[in-house]
Write a structure and sequence with these properties.
Length: 95
């Protein structure tokens, strides 16, 4: 697996295969405690590895998650109020 996200992470953390929660949170632009809370509540789909007292994330797993976020952002449903579409009358109202 060789994605752009993986290349960026490998450049940022050369020689690292496992990243700490702090490093992973920094890569995701989140606070460390926010990532810990999301992992605990299982609202984020990242597999972690417990090594002694530390929780670590494999660099490929983090890259896969970042890529899935990018894919969702491109094809996801837009939030908020729908915009006006020219030529489309709602309820038959005329202007």
């Amino acid at each position: 697996m060789s994605t752009n996200s993986l290349k960026i992470l490998q450049t940022t953390y050369p020689g690292s295969v496992l990243l700490s929660i702090k490093q992973s949170a920094l890569s995701l632009s989140k606070e460390t405690q926010t990532l810990r809370n999301e992992l605990s509540a299982k609202t984020i789909t990242l597999k972690t590895i417990k090594q002694g007292n530390r929780r670590l994330i494999h660099i490929e797993e983090l890259a896969r998650y970042i890529d899935s976020l990018a894919a969702r952002a491109v094809g996801g449903k837009k939030r908020g109020r729908p915009r006006n579409v020219p030529g489309f009358n709602v309820g038959g109202a005329t202007k």
